[in-house]
Amino acid sequence: MFLSGTILVFIGAFLATLLAGIGSAYGVHIAGKAAAGVLSEQPELFGKIVILQALPGTQGIYGFITSVLVLVFSGILGGGGEELTISQGWWYFVACMPATIGGFVSAVYQAKVASAAIYMTAKQPESSARGITLTAMVETYAILALLTSILLIISI
């Protein structure tokens, strides 16, 4: 197998989008099941609940942003087409990992909080803003992971 720096960057970018996307898809699925149950009995809560269901989907976006940034800053997209060394490739690969792993894990845990917030909103519709706040607390760590990846990518 031919392993080069460029291939390592592609693998890092691929994993960032794939794993953060899988975490988001699974997270939206978890929250969506809770939302469907509540909305089957209280359809008037759709506007409040759809936000809670959508929040775990942001990590997939963060993974995609990481992928684009690593491809741009490594010079693969819009660059001079120079081959990266294995060492450079590993640095870029590692730089993708905070958003990759943090995105995957936080999307799943955010979905669990979102589901609880959806059930809370079903019982007390006026508390939906509190549920959004609780769910957004998990988002903080996805954002920190994204920022860490961005800082690592631009510092290489």
Short description:
The protein has five helices and no strands.
CATH topology: Four Helix Bundle (Hemerythrin (Met), subunit A)
Number of domains: 1
Can you identify the CATH class? Mainly Alpha
Structural class: mainly alpha
Order of helices and strands: HHHHH
Please compute the radius of gyration using only Cα atoms: 18 Å
Mean pLDDT: 96
- Helix tally? 5
Q: What's the total number of strands?
A: 0
Q: Would you give an account of this structure?
A:
This protein has 156 residues and is mainly α. It is 82% helix and 0% strand. The protein has helices spanning 5-41, 46-54, 58-73, 86-123, 128-155. It is elongated and about 60 Å long.
Question: Which helices and strands occur, and which strands form pairs?
Answer:
Elements: H1 5-41, H2 46-54, H3 58-73, H4 86-123, H5 128-155
Helix pairs in contact: 1-2, 1-3, 1-4, 2-4, 2-5, 3-4, 3-5, 4-5
Q: Could you list some keywords that capture this structure?
A:
mainly alpha; Four Helix Bundle (Hemerythrin (Met), subunit A)
